[in-house]
C-alpha cells in the first residue's frame, strides 16, 4: 500500500517527494523539505533538455537515504531511453542530492540539466489552513550559491543551495551544461541547508548540535538496532514489522535543546513532527521493554514544560502536561497557541502512569524521586482543574475559543465524540477513557507515594479516591440497554451512548468491574467493532460511523495495541491474540510500516487494509504498536526485580523469542509458542 510519496526524516527535519524525486508542492499537500515546522523547499524539480524526468523506481535505503532511478522521457516499447539519471538523496546535516546522469548512446551528446528551486517558507499550519504571508521574500546569488530568504520582523529563515560541479545560478534555480562521452557519466552533489535568523544551521540553533552526516546516522542506527532486544520468530511479517518499527523509532527521535542530547519520540510525519505530550507518553509506554531511555527523556522534558500559570490562550494550568510544542512562524507571532499548547485532558494523568510504569520496569528510583513534585502537581491537576464540574470526573472544555481544540481527548477531531444517533455531545465533555486514566494515575501515584516519597497518608488518600471513582464510574457510565460503557458524559450529565473503541482503554486502566469485563471483550471482538484487521474507532450502526472517517470508523493500530494489552490484563488471551494477528497481518500490506490509521471496512469485503488518505507514516504510536503487541503476546510484566512471562501466542504466530530485554533485572529473555487452534 503506497500513496506515491517517498519520505526521509531525521527527527524534526524531513523531506517528502514524489516517486521521481521531485518536489512540486501545492499549498495543501505537505511535500517539501521541512525543518522545525517551516518548509525550506517547496519546489525541487529536475529536467533534462527541458523535459521533466519520469520515475523508473524509487528505493528508501534507510530512513535518512533514498535512491531514485529516472529517465528524461517516458519509455515506450518502440523508443529506447538515451539518457537516465540516478538521484541519491540523504538528509542529516543537510539535504544532499548526488545527481548522476548516464549516456546510453554510442555517441557523445550535449545536455542541459536543470534543477528548479523555490521556497515558500510555509509554516506547517499554513499548509493546512492557507493564508497570505505577512513577511517579505528575497533571493540572492552569492559566490555561486543560491540564497532564498524570508523575513518577518526578527523571524528569519533561509535556504542556501550550493553545488560541487560548475553551474549557472539564477533566481529560479541551477543550470548545468553537460557534455557526455559515449556511454559516459556526469555527476554533481547539490547541498541544501536550512538556516535560522543568525545565519546558522537551524537545527544547531534550536537543538544545540548540528545534524549528522549519513555515515554517522548509519552508525547510530546500527548501534540502536544492536542495543534493542533481538527477535526470532516464525512469522516473517512480524520480523519485518519489528525491524521496521525499530528503525522508524530511530528516525522519529527528536532531541530538543533542553534534553541535553537525549531523545524522545516526535508524533508523526508529515503533520506532527513535534513534541506531543500524549503521543510521546503513549509511545514511551509501548516501547518501555525495548528502549526505556525514550521514557526517561519524555518524563524529564515534560516536567520541564509542565504548566505553572493560568493562560486561556495556551490553555495552560498549574500541573498540566503540554499537548504540543511548535517552532514555526505562526507560533512565534502567537497566531497559534503552540508555544507550548496545553489543550489535552489526558496527557496529565498519563504522565503519572508512565512514571510508575517506568520505575516498575527499570528500577530507576532516582528519577521517581527527582520528579516527585511534577507527579504530585499532575495528580493535583486531576482534581483541581480537570474536575471542572465538581463531580469527581475529568472533563474538558476549551478556554481558547479562537483556535483551541474542541475535543481534548485522543479522538480530537471535531466529530470525535457523538451519541449513537450521530448528534454531537455538548460541552464540557468527560470521555470514558479519561476516567480510566485518572483512576490508574491515582492507583500508581499511591504506590509511588508509599514506596518512594515516604507519604503513606497521601497514598491512602489516593487509593480511597480511586476506589470511589471506580464505583461512581461504573454506575454513571454503564449503558444498561447496550451493556457497555458510554463514550462520554455531556455537560448536562447525559450518557453519550455511542459504542466506541474507547471502552478498550478502560481495560488497560483497570477501572472496569470484573463482572462486566467479558461483555466489554465481547463487544470489542464483535462484528460491529472488529473489522477482521482490528477494532474500529466507532462501531458499525452508530450515527456517525464512516469506515474512512478519522475517528469515526477507521482502525488505529495504537488503539488496538492498548486494547489488546487491556484484554490480557483481564484474562482474555484469545481475544488479545486475535487483535494482534489482525494488526500484524495488516502490517504486511504496508511493508511493515503501520500507518496512523486505515479504513474500517470489513476484511472479507476488501481483502486488504485500505489506507486512510492523509494518515501519518511513520507515526510514533503506530511504530510502537508491534512492540506492545509483543509484550502482550509474551505476557511480559515486571515483578519485583524479575521479568515474568505468561505467553499466549496466537496460532498464526508460531514461535516468538525475544533476547536481551532490558530492565531492572539487567537483560532477560522471553519465549512463547502458539497453542494449537481449538476446533
UniProtKB/TrEMBL annotation:
Domain of life: Bacteria
Domain Mannosylglycerate hydrolase MGH1-like glycoside hydrolase: 411-588
Pfam families linked to this entry: GDE_N_bis, MGH1-like_GH
Domain Putative glycogen debranching enzyme N-terminal residues, every copy: 8-190
SUPFAM superfamilies linked: Six-hairpin glycosidases
Protein name: Glycogen debranching enzyme
Organism field: Micromonospora purpureochromogenes
Amino acid at each position: 500500500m503506497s500513496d506515491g510519496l517517498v519520505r526521509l526524516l531525521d527527527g524534526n527535519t524531513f523531506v517528502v517527494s514524489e516517486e521521481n524525486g521531485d518536489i512540486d508542492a501545492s499549498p495543501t499537500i505537505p511535500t517539501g523539505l521541512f525543518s522545525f515546522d517551516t518548509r525550506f523547499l517547496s519546489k525541487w524539480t529536475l529536467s533534462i533538455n527541458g523535459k521533466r524526468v519520469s520515475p523508473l523506481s524509487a528505493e528508501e535505503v534507510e530512513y535518512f537515504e533514498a535512491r531514485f532511478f529516472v529517465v528524461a522521457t517516458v519509455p515506450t516499447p518502440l523508443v529506447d531511453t538515451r539518457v537516465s539519471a540516478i538521484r541519491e538523496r540523504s538528509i542529516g546535516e543537510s539535504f544532499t542530492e548526488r545527481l548522476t546522469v548516464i549516456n546510453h548512446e554510442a555517441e557523445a551528446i550535449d545536455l542541459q540539466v536543470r534543477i528548479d528551486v523555490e521556497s515558500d517558507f510555509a509554516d506547517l499550519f499554513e499548509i493546512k489552513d492557507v493564508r497570505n504571508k505577512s513577511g517579505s521574500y528575497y533571493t540572492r546569488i552569492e559566490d555561486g550559491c543560491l540564497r532564498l530568504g524570508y523575513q518577518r520582523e526578527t523571524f528569519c529563515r533561509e535556504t542556501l543551495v550550493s553545488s560541487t560541479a560548475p553551474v549557472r545560478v539564477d533566481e529560479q534555480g541551477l543550470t548545468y551544461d553537460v557534455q557526455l562521452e559515449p556511454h559516459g557519466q556526469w555527476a554533481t552533489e547539490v547541498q541544501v541547508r536550512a538556516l535560522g535568523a543568525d545565519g546558522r544551521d537551524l537545527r544547531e540553533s534550536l537543538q544545540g548540535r548540528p545534524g549528522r552526516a549519513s555515515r554517522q546516522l548509519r552508525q547510530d542506527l546500527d548501534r540502536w538496532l544492536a542495543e534493542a532486544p533481538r527477535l526470532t520468530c516464525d512469522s516473517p511479517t512480524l520480523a519485518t514489522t519489528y525491524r521496521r518499527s525499530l528503525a522508524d523509532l530511530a528516525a522519529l527521535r527528536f532531541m530538543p535543546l533542553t534534553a541535553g542530547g537525549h531523545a524522545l519520540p516526535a508524533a508523526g510525519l508529515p503533520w506532527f513532527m513535534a513534541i506531543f505530550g500524549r503521543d510521546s507518553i503513549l509511545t514511551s509506554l509501548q516501547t518501555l521493554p525495548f528502549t526505556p531511555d525514550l521514557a526517561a527523556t519524555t518524563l524529564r522534558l515534560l516536567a520541564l514544560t509542565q504548566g505553572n500559570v493560568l493562560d486561556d490562550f495556551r490553555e495552560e494550568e498549574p500541573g498540566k502536561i503540554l499537548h504540543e510544542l511548535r517552532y514555526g512562524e505562526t507560533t512565534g507571532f502567537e497566531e497559534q497557541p503552540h508555544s507550548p499548547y496545553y489543550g489535552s485532558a489526558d496527557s496529565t494523568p498519563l504522565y503519572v502512569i508512565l512514571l510508575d510504569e517506568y520505575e516498575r520496569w527499570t528500577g530507576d528510583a532516582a528519577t521517581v524521586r527527582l520528579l516527585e513534585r511534577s507527579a504530585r502537581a499532575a495528580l493535583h491537576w486531576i482534581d483541581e482543574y480537570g474536575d471542572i464540574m465538581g463531580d469527581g470526573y475529568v472533563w474538558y472544555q476549551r478556554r481558547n475559543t479562537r483556535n483551541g481544540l474542541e475535543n481534548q481527548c485522543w479522538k480530537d477531531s471535531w466529530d470525535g465524540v457523538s451519541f449513537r444517533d450521530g448528534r454531537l455531545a455538548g460541552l464540557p465533555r468527560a470521555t470514558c477513557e479519561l476516567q480510566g486514566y485518572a483512576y490508574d494515575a491515582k492507583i500508581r501515584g499511591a504506590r509511588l507515594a508509599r514506596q518512594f516519597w515516604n507519604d503513606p497518608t497521601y497514598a491512602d488518600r489516593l487509593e480511597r479516591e480511586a476506589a470511589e471513582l471506580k464505583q461512581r464510574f461504573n454506575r454513571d457510565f454503564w449503558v444498561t440497554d447496550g451493556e457497555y460503557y458510554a463514550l462520554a458524559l455531556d455537560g448536562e450529565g447525559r450518557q453519550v451512548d455511542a459504542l466506541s473503541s474507547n471502552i478498550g482503554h478502560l481495560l488497560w486502566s483497570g477501572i472496569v468491574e470484573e463482572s462486566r469485563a467479558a461483555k466489554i471483550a465481547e463487544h470489542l471482538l464483535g462484528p460491529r467493532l472488529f473489522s477482521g484487521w482490528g477494532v474500529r474507532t466507532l462501531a458499525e450502526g452508530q450515527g456517525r460511523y464512516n469506515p474512512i472517517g478519522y475517528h469515526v470508523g477507521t482502525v488505529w493500530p495504537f488503539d488496538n495495541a492498548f486494547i489488546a494489552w487491556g484484554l490480557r490484563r483481564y484474562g482474555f488471551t484469545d481475544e488479545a491474540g486475535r487483535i494482534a494477528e489482525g494488526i500484524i497481518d495488516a502490517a504486511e500490506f504496508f511493508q511493515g510500516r503501520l500507518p496512523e490509521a486505515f479504513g474500517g471496512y470489513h476484511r472479507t469485503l476488501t481483502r486488504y487494509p485500505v489506507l486512510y488518505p492523509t494518515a501519518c507514516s511513520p507515526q510514533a504510536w503506530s511504530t510502537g504498536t508491534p512492540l506492545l503487541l509483543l509484550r502482550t503476546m509474551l505476557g511480559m510484566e515486571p515483578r519485583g526485580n524479575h521479568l515474568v512471562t505468561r505467553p499466549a501466542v496466537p496460532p498464526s504466530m508460531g514461535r516468538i523469542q525475544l533476547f536481551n530485554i532490558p530492565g531492572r533485572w539487567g537483560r532477560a529473555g522471553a519465549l512463547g509458542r502458539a497453542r494449537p487452534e481449538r476446533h
